[in-house]
User: Which sequence fits this backbone?
């Protein structure tokens, strides 16, 4: 699959940034971790326990508990920043307040 991706990138003349790439092997027993080497073209790609894609963390064991914890933490931070942005919701139309929060 990685060779297919590399061939496609050569065809359309773009490059992967190997420092931003990682391989996650899912559902593998911890005691049986053979040493593997992953390549994308001529570059070596590291194996990782955790990978962040578009702000979402993807774990090797695909645990939903960790994802839910991360998502709730991000939502709490967003709520706190919106509550302390200087707008008084009692004085604004809810539609206007929502538009100001999103921009």
Assistant:
């Amino acid at each position: 699959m990685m060779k297919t991706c590399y061939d496609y990138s050569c065809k359309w003349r773009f490059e992967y940034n190997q420092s931003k790439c990682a391989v996650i092997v899912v559902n593998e027993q911890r005691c049986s971790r053979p040493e593997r080497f992953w390549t994308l073209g001529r570059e070596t790609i590291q194996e990782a326990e955790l990978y962040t894609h578009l702000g979402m963390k993807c774990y090797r064991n695909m645990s939903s508990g960790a994802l839910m914890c991360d998502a709730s933490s991000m939502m709490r931070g967003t709520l706190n920043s919106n509550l302390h942005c200087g707008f008084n919701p009692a004085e604004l139309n809810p539609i206007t307040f929502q538009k100001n929060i999103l921009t």
Remarks:
- The first strand starts at residue 38 and ends at 40.
- The CA atoms of residues 2 and 65 lie 29 Å apart.
